[in-house]
Amino acid sequence: MTGEPDLGAEILAIIHSVAPDVDPSTVDRAIPLPDQLDLDSMDYQNVLAAIATRFAIDIPEADVAALRSVDDLVAYVAQAVRVRRSS
Amino acid sequence: MADIAMPSLGADMDAGTLVEWLVGIGDRVERGAVVALIETEKATMELESFVAGEVEAILVAPGTKVPVGTVLARLRADDTATPPSPQSPQPSRPPPPPGPTPSPSPRPPRSSPAARRRARELGIDLAAITGTGPSGAIVLHDVVAPLPPPPSPPPSPPQRSRPSTAATPIRGAIAAAMSRSKREIPHYYLAHTISVRRALRWLADNNASRPIQDRVLPGALLLRAVAVALWDVPELNGFWIDGAYRGVEAVHLGTAIALRTGGVIAPAILDADQKSLDQIMSELRDLVARARAGRLRGSELTAATITVTSLGDRGCEAVWPIIAPPQVAIIGFGAIIERPWVDTGQVAVHPTVVATLAADHRVTDGHRGGLFLNALDRVLQSPEHL
After folding, report:
1. pTM of model > 0.80
2. Do B112 and A17 touch (CB under 8 A)?
3. B207–A61: do the CB atoms touch at under 8 Å?
4. Interfacial residues of A (vs B; Cβ cutoff 8 Å)
5. Which residues are bridge partners to B187 per DSSP?
């Protein structure tokens, strides 16, 4: 149900809701988002917070530095959702 | 009876565009309610009603650019003893004849500032576009995508030509304000490198047990520290108007936000010295989000008594900022960078930030400015008190 393609599109929609002035269709999913979209630390925290709320997961501070691209986020959210369901 | 007029949001503003009505004839509005979106050279912002009442007439259609002071709508105020509007509208064109009012036409769809700008540049009617953004909002790529390719693309040069700099309204507003500042304000500049090791450790401990939605970023800590340090040197907070300094008690901290669509705006965190760090963080989060969506209020963009500009984690090491008149000081923070640092006779690696102050020499001197940067340093060494 949460296959990765859907997850990626949903994460792109969240990015667009936080930063309506960026065009999600141009995002390269492998490239770090802050550099690619000129997101500052507040934008990026808003993105991560919206993802955490949407998928009902927490993103510990220690994990934040490794979450840079859409691909990173898809893998992380998929894993976190699996862990939450199995617990 | 009360008029809602195009407000003046700065000395350099002489006109604004009514983008969208959020109320219609017969609607009740409360005092402070947002009744319309307007676009100025600085930004798109929300227009508030200063009286409660019922909308009686809408006099200006969406998309119309009108001079400051033009009456946009009439309200039947609740209280007949409503005080007269503080300043009568500027001399301006008479309102359009009260013929068939343009109001009950369907409201235009929501759209991002970038999309509106592009649509205007291209002469496209937004109503003809289907939005793909949140709640069907029209976003930049909606405006571009349905277009046929340009009739005669230039043969060789890159086809995506950049708009001429002077053509962007926000660039014009920045040019006017910064030229005036450099022409009129005798700036002096000071810099001080501050170790933020204690501050960042305290922040990390403080954030460790919080969900990401509630974590505080270093930028908010720096803002709070500025507000507190201003207690020591309050004369940096205020205005220079008509040849005289006017100090202000309340600290309304303008926070510069770079817009990806070009330009920078500095909405204010009101009474920042009276607010907790968490409150400042939550207001900053809200301001940035609304700046991105073009939903700042006019009052927020004109309230600042002093401004802070932070280059952020992808910036460079120091900024020499320009005062936004009529303010008399601006504080800059470079990126937080690890540097060798002498601590009790030992060299260690500390995260550090270069804090800069540009201040108006008509109001303060370098000595007082230096005391301010030292106070800022001291405050940041005791983050638990912030």
Report:
1. no
2. no
3. yes
4. 13, 16-23, 25-26, 34-35, 37-38, 40-43, 45-46, 48-49, 52-53, 58-59, 61, 64
5. B360
